[in-house]
Design brief:
Layout (H helix, E strand, L loop, with lengths): L1 H14 L1 H4 L11 H4 L11 E10 L7 E11 L7 E12 L4 E15 L6 E16 L10 E2 L2 E2 L13 E16 L5 E9 L19 E13 L2 E12 L2 E16 L4 E11 L3 E10 L2 E10 L4 H4 L2 E12 L17
């Protein structure tokens, strides 16, 4: 049975998409720290909280479940141009509980390029520790069968040398923001992940490395009228021989748009090349946005999953550190 275990570990190391490639979200703009470390602090508030959940291919066995959470702040050490962020994610695949976990810390420096601050550039870097492990207790072994009866409490008689491995993994990135005016803006960025190409094998095979991932992303907002704007965006990623392109647009309709409050509903369609069409809907309530998307499979796997791809949920919440302002004055004397 030990031989079968090593064969299984070798197969998931060589062919499993979770181990061989990084995680990805269809709502990539709603998961900024996973996309580009230079997007850390790229928001109009004091702090930002982001949560993401993805459930992919659940119609084929256990599928993939991905959880991500990040928190960001500005003005590190009271320096206005420096932002910081913490990122956690966990990706669980299959009934054998193959799990990838990540903890990262990001820093970003932003610099205005013109006098009115409408054009700026940001440079960011991140360092993460990633761990990949497999739960061997979810396996079944010959010695756990008594006749035709299986008892998971029976000893399996195996000695596993490696059930997990981990590595440090740096990333860098940059992006440019251009605010055409208060309602129209564009953003372009590039990021490089897995810079050290760490070993990516339970067996510590020298020729099994995590390939560097390069991400190019473009997003924009263009006003149609006072209540409607469109948000086209494009993502291109390359990791080894694998490539991914997502292109599409959201439309945002404001049902309240004032100086102090902006409330809107959003909807859009995106396409991931040779893989899925992505339907997206969302709700924005000034400081909080909630988005739902669903992947409709278009690849050869549709025969197995009946065009069912992945459900994804994202929530973003902004926090402003409000300090009340007190006016000082002189108390008038009382005259009798």
């Amino acid at each position: 049975m030990k031989k079968q275990y090593y064969i299984f570990i070798l197969l998931i190391t060589l062919f499993h998409p979770l181990v061989g490639q990084d995680i990805h979200f269809s709502q990539y703009n709603q998961s900024p720290l996973n996309l580009n470390p230079s997007l850390t602090g790229n928001f109009n508030a004091k702090y930002r909280l982001v949560g993401n959940f993805r459930n992919q291919w659940s119609s084929i066995g256990e599928g993939y479940k991905t959880y991500s959470f990040s928190v960001e702040g500005k003005n590190l050490f009271k320096v206005k141009r420096i932002s910081y962020g913490l990122l956690l994610f966990q990706d669980q695949a299959g009934s054998e509980n193959l799990t990838q976990s990540n903890f990262a810390i990001n820093f970003n420096y932003s610099q205005n390029l013109n006098y009115d601050s409408t054009l700026s550039v940001s440079i960011g870097a991140g360092l993460s520790y990633q761990q990949v492990k497999v739960d061997v207790n979810s396996f079944s072994f010959d010695k756990q069968y008594v006749g035709n009866s299986y008892n998971p409490n029976n000893p399996n008689g195996e000695n596993f040398n490696s059930e997990s491995f981990g590595y440090f993994n740096p990333s860098v990135g940059s992006h440019i923001n251009y605010a055409i005016n208060s309602d129209n803006a564009i953003k372009f960025g590039i990021a490089f992940h897995n810079l050290l190409r760490p070993k990516n094998s339970f067996l510590q095979l020298e020729d099994q490395q995590l390939e560097m991932r390069t991400a190019y992303h473009f997003s924009s907002t263009f006003l149609v009228n006072q209540l409607i704007d469109i948000q086209p965006s494009v993502l291109f990623m390359k990791q080894g021989k694998a490539q991914e392109v997502i292109i599409g647009s959201n439309l945002r309709y404001y049902f309240e748009k004032t100086r102090y409050a902006r409330k809107a509903i959003t909807g859009g369609v995106f396409y991931r090349n040779k893989d899925a069409a992505i339907i997206n809907v969302g709700l924005e309530l000034t400081q909080t946005s909630l988005s739902f998307s669903y992947d409709i499979g278009t690849s050869d796997l549709t025969q197995a999953n009946n065009n069912k791809g992945g459900l994804e949920i994202s929530i973003v919440h902004l926090i402003n550190n409000y300090k009340p302002h007190y006016k000082r004055g002189t108390k008038c004397p009382n005259f009798m």
